[in-house]
Design goal:
The protein has helices at about 35-45, 60-65, 70-80, 85-95, 110-115, 120, 140-145, 215-220, 230-240, 260-270, 275-290, and strands at about 5-10, 30, 35, 50-55, 100-105, 125-130, 135, 155-160, 170-180, 180-190, 200-210, 245-250, 250-255. It is α/β, with parallel strands linked by helices. Strand 2 and strand 3 (about 35) form a beta hairpin. The structure holds uridine 5'-triphosphate. Uridine 5'-triphosphate binds near residues 17, 56 and 132.
């Protein structure tokens, strides 16, 4: 099996759940302490052995490209004022991986966004990391999926249990446990409307590894829930034919696509960041003491 070295990060959604900020700032650029959300995601991919990354953007998201480009003026100024550490940090962002961009010209859904990566994948299997889902932990979440790719089925989905009130926000899936946190997935359904439509307690969360066959399926996938071309609908064809593997990944996931997830990420990662940990801890204690 060829090593998986390519990753696609769809980042072309409209981010309507985090308006009004997303009117002018892509949700993928929302900061968590001092880094934009998408930088954590690129770091996760790189830590998993990914060398080539395609970020799917759209109009108004050029700031993502700037973030992964060199910044000659800033770098010259940091060099002049001998801010070596800052210079190193700024330069490292651009040199982390071979990052390229393509635009999704119309926001027609996640499946449509992933289809833009057909030429990039060049017939090879590839990883997909949703641009608004940050997952922290010892082993990169996408590595946990890559490690089982090809073992039990043709693709791998990252899964987590979600509270019942959240079933309708994700893709639900039918699973049978194989061993530990690994499951065989034989069916899936995007955003189930009623509890009867839910296939298990598990939902598809933010990370998948796909065979290149997905593109041929996406090309004929009709719009589904919300009138969008859904990645889940295309993956379902693989699940019900060859079967897919599902991995209940170990890690903490922050959904930057909603306001509470953004706050959670900043509080929890702020408590781990050396520049903010102590001050934030004291602040939260004082604040919490005054809450009723
Ligand atoms: P979401 O469903 O969270 O994105 O898609 P959204 O449409 O921005 O969200 P809301 O509901 O309007 O707030 C998950 C990922 O897929 C990308 C998003 O950028 C996000 O990273 N996406 C979604 C695309 O790239 N293109 C699309 O057409 C839709």
């Amino acid at each position: 099996m060829k090593k998986i070295t390519k990753a696609v990060i769809p980042a072309a959604g409209l981010g309507t759940r985090v308006l009004p900020i997303t009117k002018s700032l892509p949700k993928e650029m929302l900061p968590i302490v001092d880094k934009p959300c998408i930088e954590y995601i690129v770091e996760e991919a790189v830590a998993a052995g990914i060398t080539d990354i395609l970020i799917i953007t759209n109009r108004g998201k050029g700031v993502i490209e700037d973030h992964f480009d060199y910044s000659p003026e800033l770098e010259a100024s940091l060099a002049k004022s001998k801010k070596e550490a800052e210079l190193k940090t700024v330069r490292a962002i651009s040199d982390m991986a071979n990052v390229t961009f393509i635009r999704q010209k119309e926001t027609l859904g996640l499946g449509h966004a992933v289809l833009r990566a057909k030429a990039f994948a060049g017939g090879e299997p590839f990883a997909v990391l949703f641009g608004d889902g940050v997952i922290t932990g010892k082993v990169p979440a996408i590595k946990q999926l890559i490690d089982v790719y090809g073992e039990f089925g043709e693709g791998v989905v990252g899964i987590q249990k979600v509270p019942a009130e959240d079933f309708s926000k994700y893709g639900s899936l039918k699973v049978e446990n194989i061993r530990d946190n690994i499951f065989k997935c034989t069916d899936m359904r995007e955003k189930p409307k009623t509890i009867e439509e839910v296939l298990s307690l598990y939902s598809i969360i933010d990370r998948v590894v796909l065979p290149a066959r997905i593109f041929e399926i996406l090309e004929r996938t009709k719009p589904g829930v919300g009138g969008e071309i859904q990645l889940t609908d295309a993956m379902r064809e693989i699940a019900i034919t060859t079967g897919m593997t599902a991995v209940e990944f170990v890690g903490t996931r922050y959904d930057l696509g909603n306001k509470f997830g953004f706050l959670q990420a900043n509080i929890e990662l702020g408590l781990q960041h050396p520049d903010t940990a102590d001050q934030l801890k004291d602040y939260i204690k004082t604040l919490a003491a005054g809450l009723v």
